[in-house]
Specification:
By secondary structure, the protein is an alpha/beta fold. The chain contains seven helices and nine strands. Helix 1 runs parallel beside helix 4 and helix 4 packs parallel to helix 6.
């Protein structure tokens, strides 16, 4: 578990902000057309969405676009980095101004921090990045842990995005996948061109079922 003093400091930090009213909308845009269209306008508020991507398939680019889009409309984003994999130097510094980056360091701590940040109500999007967590560790996560996050999210305005290399969230309402890796030619495209060209596949696309156990 994370240090209780660290969690207390995190609660004090986010409690100092006045949460804007995001409940007027239903979705929060990611800035990636294919993702937003697949979800009917963006990440659904009060719900978990899972984005599955193999290494090099564009998951980091989607995260960068989320930060850029949120910054443009002055929305706050929380990133919970379960494996300390986020590289802020790869993101334009201005896009980081509305980001809270929680370096959890392991899966158990990441889930505990997610519970704090999702229920806080100050964020438009909470990203739980599990992409570098070993699959065997993810598979041992009890359903009750996900059940808790589902229920907390339902009472808050944040859209919760779980990024993974495997489908790991039980009863998730929407699970999308990035089906291909970037080609060399993609690296020479502009961010706008990449965002327009990115494609997704819908692996699961209906309301979340009740979790068992």
């Amino acid at each position: 578990m994370p240090d209780p003093k660290t969690l207390a400091a995190l609660r004090s930090l986010v409690a100092a902000w006045t949460p804007p009213d995001w409940r007027n909308g239903v979705h929060v845009s990611t800035g990636v057309r294919a993702v937003d269209e697949a979800l009917g306008g963006g990440l659904p508020q009060g719900r978990l969405t899972e984005l599955v991507s193999a290494p090099g398939a564009g998951g980091q680019f989607v995260l960068a676009q989320i930060l850029r889009t949120a910054r443009a409309v002055r929305q706050r984003v929380a990133l919970i980095d379960a494996a300390d994999a986020f590289a802020p130097e790869s993101i334009p510094s201005d896009d980081l101004r509305h980001l809270v980056w929680a370096r959890a360091g392991n899966l158990r701590a990441a889930l505990a921090v997610a519970d704090v940040l999702v229920r806080d109500g100050n964020f438009a999007i909470v990203v739980l990045d599990l992409r570098d967590v070993p699959a065997r560790e993810l598979n041992r996560t009890p359903k009750s842990a996900w059940h808790r996050i589902h229920r907390v999210a339902e009472r808050q305005p944040a859209a919760v995005l779980v990024q993974s290399h495997h489908g790991v969230v039980p009863a998730v309402g929407w699970r999308l996948a990035l089906p291909r890796s970037w080609r060399l030619a993609d690296q020479r495209s502009t961010r706008e061109e990449l965002a327009a060209a990115l494609s997704v596949e819908t692996m699961r696309g209906h309301g979340a079922e009740e979790l068992a156990g």
